[in-house]
Amino acid sequence: MKKEQRTRDVPDALGAADTGGLPYEQSTLDAARSLARVAALVAAVLGAAGLAGWISGIDVLRRAPGGGSTMVANTAGGLLALGVSLFLLARARITPWVNTAARAAAALAALIGGLTVVEYTTGLALGIDELLFRDDTARVPLEMPGRMAPNTAAALLIGGVAALCASVPRLPAWGSQIPGLAVLALGMLRLYGFAYAVPELERFGAYRGMALYTGLALVLLGIAAFLARPDRGPAGLLMNAGTTGALGRRLFGTVLVVPPLLGWLVLAGDDAGLFGPRLGTALLVCGHVVVFTIIIFATLGVGRRIEVAHARAEWQVRQNELVQAFMDHTPAVVFIKDLDGRFLAVNTTFEKSLGLPREEVLGRRDRDVMPPDLARRARTADDALLAQGQPVQREERLPLPGGPRDVLTSLFPLFTASGSPYAICGVVTDVTEQVAAQRELRRANQRFLALLESAPDAMLITDGSGTVVMANAQVRRLFGRAPESLVGTPVIDLVPEPRRRRHSALLRAYFRQTGTKPVVLDQGLYGLHGNGDEFPAEVSVSSLQTEEATLVFLSVRDITGRRQAEAERAERYEVHRRIAYTLQHSLMGEPPRLPGLPSAHRYLASIRDPGVGGDWFDIIPLGRNRTGLFIGDVMGRGLEAAAVMGQMRAASHALARTDIPPGRLMAGLDAFVGDLADQLVTCAYVVVDQDSHEVTLCSAGHLPVIALPPDGPARRLRAPVGVPLGVNDSRWDAVPFRQTSLPLPPGSTLALYTDGLVERPGSDIEEQIDTLARSLEVALSGRPTDRESLDQAAEWLVKTLIPDTAAHDDDVTLLLVGLPGTDGAHPRA
């Protein structure tokens, strides 16, 4: 069969899963989709007409003549949205934007119906009933103006869910078709009520009834939802091209037409006085029995003919099916020919190899379906087989339409019961990949050897026990030994004697690892030259697990020059570090030791720029038992930040010695920083008045100062924080720096610090500051605030907040100052 025929006769995988693999006629599916689109479109038109009636005030568009209830505006909108959604979903091909639009319309319809259902069930008024138009058509007291009937609301909710399910191809088709039938049933109830003049089917109790237009639209929407996916689910059972589909459509049509027609006839006779209700009921039952008896016997006759035909054909095709199934599931090319070379059977692999469908091959000779050269070779092989009378097998290269292929051909004759051959069976296995793999393996071996020899380092390959099995030419230059002389010797012989135990332990440790990965070792490894000299070596180790054994690859490089260069760099680095350290301490200076005001400090430089940074602190005697404490941090790192720091320390010291207020001092420093290009500085200035036991504080974007009273917990000094120095612009009004004065109990301890002490990636700096305060309280608990205690506390604080100082990447400055007590001593409770 051709590809187009197979596509028409065999359903797709999803359709087969839903309907049991039934075939479909494309015309039937197209007709079903067309019917679904027309039904959805008419329903949408009815909804649009209802909206138009509300807009224009034309009552006939909202209420059918003699139809009773009026279609409210929300119902019209919901029908329009649901009709548009199902119209879009009933297409054979649905683009993503169309599917999105259909889902939006379905969601709108479901929302309108669902909110109305909530209103009925909860008794709440959600304000949606007269959202579009004011309704004056309510007829009974329980009718809410503008609110649709409860059965209409339920139908819109169910129909919206059905359309949403239909828009998701992965959901089963019954998820949209069963709700569609429910919508159809609700609409049919309204039509039956109208046809049979039964108002109880129109409304529920005293609530508003369903409009006649709405009932008709719901019937159409139910049909559209059911047929939107006609090749799947329950609809697929009706639409398939087999006998079940034909019978199902007839039965379904009979169910939809006969019972309503018989019921109408009985009611018409009853209304005309021809018979009473009891006789009418008997006639209705009798009519149903007669009609369905006829349908049952018609169905039984068709089914019996199908069973007889199926039983007759089943045995005839069973054997051929088994043979053909075996052939089709064989990856090799399989064919059967008669003695004249006519093909009796071929498998799907044969079709793919020649690019011809099966019906164009069966019954034809080799020369009719094969290229001339291939046909001649096939005929010669057949003649040789018949001459020998024994199976033959050979490997050859065949010129096939898709290109030449390496094949393994097996031919054997098929015999009749009398022992004479009547056909030839051939099995042709494609071994192109295997042959190519063998050739590639040979080329890969050659490339591997060339790569091994071209490597710049000495390459050694050992087995799992450490015995050399291969070496390249570079081992002669590095170890002074011929490559062939190393084969079969332990690789540990290339290590100096005193170091072999350690090297062996490293190699064994590598093997003990699970999932060994390549590693590079260059610490403490040495190689042995043939003349007895040893040299530092870098060894790259990797392993390869083969079917036979484990191979270890060792790449050895002499790093004598690297070690010398590293030693020289380390020596230069140490010289530069000492110079930077001297420069940093000369810029920062040593704070004075003031009597009655003990202090301790710590400074740690960043590992990125060892010895230099932008942090500084200062202790400035101001006279009259007043002392200035200064701490600052220049943004940036390295020598540039250290240079700015030196200028800032000198400037702040000079300004502080003039005894100007802290606020004015910050303003002066801000002007000084403004003259420096692209610099930002945070700092805090504290003036301690030992007579009044008061501190005056001004901060320029710096972290809060921590105070530890002698009899209380450590706390932050609450003071206004200004902008960092260098932020103010002369073109705009400068932000003033405000100072504040705070009382401080005698014997308190002040802690000034930079952000390097409390700032950590991934942690909250506020929590770190609280940690510093608690640690300060623990460090000085029960101890006097003399210089020795402060120094020990400073050391303990740095270790607590920075456990690994060797890896810290920011400058750290900490200053602790102890204030005297009332008697000049430094107590600590």
TrEMBL record:
Pfam family, one: PAS_4
BP GO annotations: regulation of DNA-templated transcription
Residue ranges of domain PAS in the record: 319-389, 444-514
GO terms for MF: phosphatase activity
Highest taxon listed in the record's lineage: Bacteria
Signal sequence, start to end: none
InterPro entries reported in the protein's UniProt record: Bact_Sigma-Reg (IPR052016), PAS (IPR000014), PAS-like_dom_sf (IPR035965), PAS_4 (IPR013656), PAS_fold (IPR013767), PPM-type-like_dom_sf (IPR036457), PPM-type_phosphatase-like_dom (IPR001932)
Keyword Acyltransferase applies: no
Protein name: PAS domain-containing protein
Protein source organism: Streptomyces naganishii JCM 4654
